[in-house]
Each structure stands twice: as structure tokens, then as C-alpha cells.
Write the C-alpha cells for this entry.
Amino acid sequence: MQGVLHKAAAPPALGELVGRYELSNYADGKSPKTIRWYSDILKSYIRYREENGYPYDLSSFNIESVREYILYLRRRPKFAGHPFTPEQDEAVSAQTIRGHIRGLKAFSTWLYRNGHTRQNRLQFQKLPKAPTKLMEPLTPEEIEKIISTFDRHSPTGSRNHAIFVTALDSGLRASEMTSIRLGQVNTKGGFIKVIGKGNKERIVPIGEFVRMTLWHYVTRVRPDHSDSHCDSLFLSRHGQAITPNTIKLMFTRLAKSSGVERLHAHLCRHTFAVNYLLNGGDIFSLREILGHTSLEMVSHYLHFTTAQITDQHHKYSPMDRLQRGTKEDLTLGPARLDVYQKSGRLQDRPNINGQQPLKSVSYRR
């Protein structure tokens, strides 16, 4: 019938769209952890709008409201409202804020591509600059302290030792370590097939020491405490697959027992990356081993290698030694050049000007 006006359907609520976005991420094959990360960021944004009496429908989701949210995050104490971790005096880190903005921008792009908005409303929202922090890798002394705490005669101690040295030699994430199956470990070929973020499979090489360590764990230790048919590489004492939280708890206890209080699981990944580059590895192969899609994600490891080289120069500067009146040969011979180039490798240093040599074990790739 002509002339009859039909009321336009109301646009879906923002919370409903977040639910649809979550389903879309599942359909795209994103990992549950990634999907939960996106959802938590969006729910945090909606909760902020609701608690402050601001509208939180689709029309209010724009660059202005997001910038207000950024200012709120800058003022919010770290771990505010966290159910388990107490609130801290320091503010939320710049990296955390960048993560929130990335999540909101991804949602804005999804809204536009699926016809919910006429334009990508956050297209021109830039990520705030974040200071580059140099996370110092574990030193040879710290690694020795940690290794000395393992009771390798016990099933749990042998397993934890295998986890630690594998993490140092491969840079695997905690979640990737727990997802390894027996059939994915090739000790003869020296590699592990890993299912990383986004269910992407990649090959991660391992050195001879880790190959022998894993072989010992699988053939001598693991069968002794596994009465189940679970094919996960690392098992609990009850024969069940361990979880990422198991590894995190393991590192928390290691930090206390070894005295290396700064130890955490991701520090092993960082230690591997830095030493891989210092020992002659290239950034392109490092990207493949770590499972990153862009060089940007691994370029920050170069900052520390530069700092290491600078530190070595300060120790062995020929002109500095000449000015101090040393009679030591100032030429950079093959032996000294090897020490300089491999400054990150865990090996003995020469005794120069009364300095004690650094004794350590080698965990070369």
C-alpha cells in the first residue's frame, strides 16, 4: 500500500555487535586466547562508557569516544579492578594502551567491512608512541643458578629442566610448549613442529643438547609416570597434559628458589632471540623461528645486540687501554675477535687486566 511509512529497524546494540564479532573471529580461525583478548578490550571500553554515564550504542563508538577512553586508561592505576592482582601505584603501561587501541581499531574495521558503519571510524586513530624498553636477557651466571635448582632425579624436576632448556634454545611461548605432541618432536632431525598463533604450523630447530635432553625425558622419565594415553610431550605427575599456567607457576617457583627474581617464561624467549642474533643468526630466520609475521616484531631484539656490542667496546677499546698505559697488545687478533663477535655466547672470557674469567656452560644452537 502506497504512502505507508515503515519504521526503520533499530541498529543492533554495541554489546550485541561485540558478540557477533567474537563469533566472526571464531569462524576466521583465530585462537581462543586471541578472541578472548579482543573481547576483553571491547567489554572494557563498554564498561567504561556505562560506568561513567556515557552512551555506549553504535553511534557513540567513534574516534572522539575512543580518545576519551585513552585518557582514562592513562590515568587508571595498573591492575585496577583485577580480581586476583592488587592495584598498584604505577599507571597502565604505554604498551597496554597500544594494545587496547589495536583491539578497538580491529573492531572498527570489522564494523565497516560488514556494513554496520558507512566508514571505518577509527581509521585515522594513531597508536601512541611507547618507550622502547631493553629487556636484558638472562646472563650465564643466572642460567647456571637456575639449572642448579633442578632435581633431575625426580620426574617433575627432569620435566621442568627439559622445559627450561627447550625454551632457552627455541624461544617457544608457554602456550606452544604445552601444545607439543610426541609426534611433533623429531630428535633425529633436530626440530619440533609447533602450532603457534592463528593455528599456524612452523618448524622450530633445536640443538644437540636439547635433543638429548628431550630424548632422555621421553624414554627414561615420561613413561614412568604416565598411565594414560595422552600424547602431549610434557605431562603432569598424574599423566595429564600440563597447561600454560603450569609453566608460569613453574617459573615463579624457579625465580624464588634460584634467586633470579626477574625470571619469567617470556624472558627465555627474549634470551634466545638476543643470543641467536649475537651468535651470528639473521633476523629473517629468527622471525620464522619465533613465528612472527613481520620484521617489526623482531626488530626490537636488535636494540639489545647493539647495546651489547657497545658494552664490549667500552671494555676492550684499544684507545682507552692505550691511555691507561697498558702494554697489552692492541691488535684485534682472531681469538679476541671471536670473543667480541660472540659476546653473547655462554663461554669463558679471557682474563684481561686482572678481571676474572667468566665460567659458564654452552647452550649453542
